[in-house]
Amino acid sequence: MRSVMLVLAAAVCFGTTGTAQALGPAADPVSVGAARILIGGGALAAVAFALQAAGRRSGATGTSVAPSSGGRAPRLPAWVAVAVGAAGVLAYQPAFFAGTAANGVAVGTVVALGSAPVLTGLLDWALRRRFPGGTWVLATALATVGVAVLASASGTGPSSVDPLGVAASVGAGASYAVYTLAGKSLLDRGWSSPASMGAMFGVAAAVSLPVLLSTDTRWLATGAGLAMALWLGLVTTTAAYLLFGAGLKHLAPATVSTLTLAEPLTATLLGVLLLQERLPASAVLGLAVLASGIVLLAASSGRRMPRRTTPRTAAATSRGVPVDVGGTP
Fold this sequence. Notes:
Layout: H1 2-15, H2 17-23, H3 29-57, H4 78-128, H5 134-152, H6 163-188, H7 193-213, H8 223-248, H9 253-259, H10 262-274, H11 281-303, H12 311-318
Helix pairs in contact: 1-8, 1-10, 2-8, 3-4, 3-7, 3-8, 4-5, 4-6, 4-7, 4-9, 5-11, 6-7, 7-8
């Protein structure tokens, strides 16, 4: 349950993104996205480096810890996982913005957020040979329906849907799945969660610098613009992905992906409380359905507690014999 709460806390941080942008100055979304990754990814890399240095001074390693539960040891080099994860981070935002530009915020958001848990579960099943489980399927279906109802309630979708825009939104969902699974791969190797997130986002930050410099950055010279960039970077990226990585260490990627659907729930509630937005009855219904799916999955994941170690399991473990202790997948 602690891991579940960490992921939900990360989703709350993610959910403040829209409100922060609404309260900030008007700016090119590509510029804002690049600044977010540059600041947040750079800070994540700095945190990972500081923890590694502290670990070395204390005689421990700041990068490697005990391998995370529920995964086979990856065979590909670690740098491949870092590069693939960084590519997923970089690809997400332009794909998401392209989808919303083509089909509107409602359709683009529901396709991107709704496809991410499904694609994560399917890729995890294909790569790690672990079916997420019937409860995950039901919870993901409920949460996705809730997101769809919530998005349609905004009434901002166009009358016709652009297939290329849908493809871009699905690409955003796939990008999320890629960097989630890449992060899990690093955790399965024994990397610490700050090190895995810091490596992927640090590389992404380095690539984001020329992207940012190629855009109009005058918004960063204003107080409101700088405050927005720092919030998006340090809260919705650095803090959020430290929490995300810590939860991902002990949960299946598919479970984590569905739990982060608390992001649109948070965003909607903040819109009502801070931006004085009004919710139609259909939006309230969408929130209820979305919350039911998240609660179902959180309760199910929280009940999967490891059994106490018995003399038999302790002896088997000491001999190097793998023993199923009923932990979280």
